Amino acid sequence: MWVQDFEGPAGQPPDPQIWTHELGGGGWGDRQLQVYTADPGNAALDGAGNLAITARRETDGTVTSARLTTRDRFAPTYGRVEARLKVPDGRGTWPAFWMLGTDIGRVGWPACGEIDVMEHVGSEPRRCHGTVHGPGYSGLAGGIGSPIDAGTDLTEDFHEYAVAWDRSGITWLLDGCEHHRLTPPDVPGPWPFDHPFYLLVNLAIGGNWPGNDTDDPDLPAVLLVDRISVEACG
């Protein structure tokens, strides 16, 4: 099993041999407000066994946050991919734990495939979303997946968000309980999910997600990542 548990002193960055930062702003395709940085103020260990990804408003009014990725460092093909997270509350928050195909540089998105293990928006505190994107089914209106109503406010505690991913399909789980499954016949196009994918975890702010768009987000907001693991299936 591959595990990242984020133990270490407060202020230390996550393991630089595994995690790199994706940087920049410009809306990220759907009017998100944040600029991603490599500043420890946006992503660092909290000293209590968590990675804290913090979205904040700088003195010049810029909203900054962090997006971390294992691109070119770690990319499994299949497995149970899981993160134990405490998502932030508040207007405009949009944390995500997700995966992209390693061939993105050659074939582009969405041909590389995208697996969203978990997305959560502040306007729906009881819900999380699990989705795939591929050729012919991508974007906010086109991805194939399903939300789950957890029956509790997910911002109040840590929860385990996972997919069990193998050649037959992808199953989404919340706290160990399956909430939906997709197989190749379920999508209206190619199934680009049978090759290596790298991991991403980020905290976006605003954007075009229905009900989440705002010019006045509740900041600072913190996504806590207690553990990320990948275990072989079968």
Automatic annotation (TrEMBL):
<dbReference type="GO" id="GO:0016787">
    <property type="term" value="F:hydrolase activity"/>
</dbReference>
<protein>
    <submittedName>
        <fullName>Glycoside hydrolase family 16 protein</fullName>
    </submittedName>
</protein>
<dbReference type="InterPro" id="IPR000757">
    <property type="entry name" value="Beta-glucanase-like"/>
</dbReference>
<dbReference type="InterPro" id="IPR013320">
    <property type="entry name" value="ConA-like_dom_sf"/>
</dbReference>
<dbReference type="Pfam" id="PF00722">
    <property type="entry name" value="Glyco_hydro_16"/>
</dbReference>
<comment type="similarity">
    <text>Belongs to the glycosyl hydrolase 16 family.</text>
</comment>
<keyword id="KW-0378">Hydrolase</keyword>
<dbReference type="InterPro" id="IPR050546">
    <property type="entry name" value="Glycosyl_Hydrlase_16"/>
</dbReference>
<feature type="domain" description="GH16">
    <location>
        <begin position="1"/>
        <end position="234"/>
    </location>
</feature>
